């Protein structure tokens, strides 16, 4: 009996060690040629990340870049599997991935072109409405000034509206980046599909410009929403507060989903909005933590610096991880809405 107990304990110990070893292997970060751990499994993404760490990006912007690179990594690894299985014969997915990567480079000023946008500060802009705030677009500025001076909005509503205006400004910037990227990489894409014939080649060329048209349509619809709210104020049945969630909900209502499908999606979007708000809170805490770290570093107490740096690093990692999960969830929701809408339209 005692021998059986010892044997069982040994098996359990080996099992635990094996499980622990497997987890450590699976969760360990890949290593570069110098043996040091790297962030990503794709070399070019690591090169971008290393360059970003040398740039003067704000902590939040660096965390956003990390999330975008994680999404790009996930998509590229999926594509490599597709390619092995022969599922991207016309190179359409490969061309889209290259375009997405170029958009990331341009978005964070890493494409070799001068970024003309003003430098970001560590101030928490959403909590402070100033007279001089502008959105670099005459139409947006005019609408914003009208809404701000109309007396129709409470302080909280004005903050929510400002987030929508800022989101729309960011969407315009992303559209301009995409348009520029498509134009500058046209020859590369033509080379990718140079061996294709007739309809396949034409389809790939149209696909890029269809994406631009879809984004422009989204911009026009977003501006119309801002115009309506600025004139009429928020309605009592406004379902959501976060601009990205509002955008998904508006797209869902245009996609010919059934009432039951819309109700189900609305509930999922409520959970997603909570995730977005939590991520925004972590971004704010990350900025504050960075400010505290800078203050502590100026004092010169090494032990205090070490503890503060450790807290900042942990918070930065949580913010990056949360940002990736939030963006992946948003990507999944957008794909779900697009697929379901297409299925309905085809019927």
Helix-strand layout with pairing:
Elements: H1 2-27, H2 43-54, H3 59-84, H4 92-107, H5 138-148, H6 155-184, H7 186-192, H8 198-232, H9 243-253, H10 259-299, H11 302-346
Helix pairs in contact: 2-3, 3-4, 3-11, 4-6, 5-6, 5-8, 6-8, 9-10, 9-11, 10-11
Please provide a brief summary of the model:
InterPro entries: A2-macroglobuin_RAP (IPR038003), Alpha_2_MRAP_C (IPR010483), MG_RAP_rcpt_1 (IPR009066), RAP_D2 (IPR038001), RAP_D3 (IPR037999), RAP_sf (IPR036744). By secondary structure, the protein is mainly alpha-helical. It has helices at 2-27, 43-54, 59-84, 92-107, 138-148, 155-184, 186-192, 198-232, 243-253, 259-299, 302-346.
Describe this entry's structure for a reader.
By secondary structure, the protein is mainly α. The chain folds into 2 domains: 152 residues; 97 residues, Receptor-associated Protein (Up-down Bundle), CATH 1.20.81. 75% of the residues lie in helices and 0% in strands. It contains 11 helices and no strands. Helix 2 packs antiparallel against helix 3, helix 5 runs antiparallel to helix 6 and helix 5 packs parallel to helix 8. The longest helix is centred in the last third of the chain and has 45 residues. It starts with a helix and ends with a helix. The relative contact order is 0.08. The C terminus is likely disordered.
